[in-house]
Write a structure and sequence with these properties.
The protein is mostly beta strands and 112 residues long. It is built from no helices and 11 strands. It is globular and about 40 Å long.
Length: 112
């Protein structure tokens, strides 16, 4: 069973950058596609980005294309989300997901 722990969230100004990390435990990590999702206050959780088990394929929500980059390091059992040119509408709790397992989330707040 994979367990996921996110980190790297925080408060940043519009136009700033953050790098989120998702550390996974469990042997199954290397065989699992991973994704990032986010949930803004009062809104439903939404897809942000995903990466295949070997990093060979990625996909992004239209709202973050060209600004966010998902990557993974299977040797370190970690998935990353590099976020640049952040906007206030990127504010929310960011969750990592692998298979059916969710992390606890990390808060990202972008001030205007």
């Amino acid at each position: 069973q994979v367990q996921l722990v996110e980190s790297g969230g925080g408060l940043v100004q519009t136009g700033g950058s953050l790098r989120l990390s998702c550390a996974a435990s469990g042997r199954a990590f290397k065989n699992v596609a991973m994704g990032w999702f986010r949930q803004a206050p009062g809104k439903e959780r939404e897809f942000v980005a995903a990466i295949s088990w070997n990093g060979g394929s990625t996909s992004y929500a239209d709202s973050v294309k060209g600004r966010f980059t998902i990557s993974r390091d299977n040797a370190k059992n970690t998935v990353f989300l590099e976020m640049n040119s952040l906007k206030p509408e990127d504010t929310g709790v960011y969750y990592c997901k692998g298979g059916s397992v969710w992390g606890q989330g990390t808060q990202v707040t972008v001030s205007s």
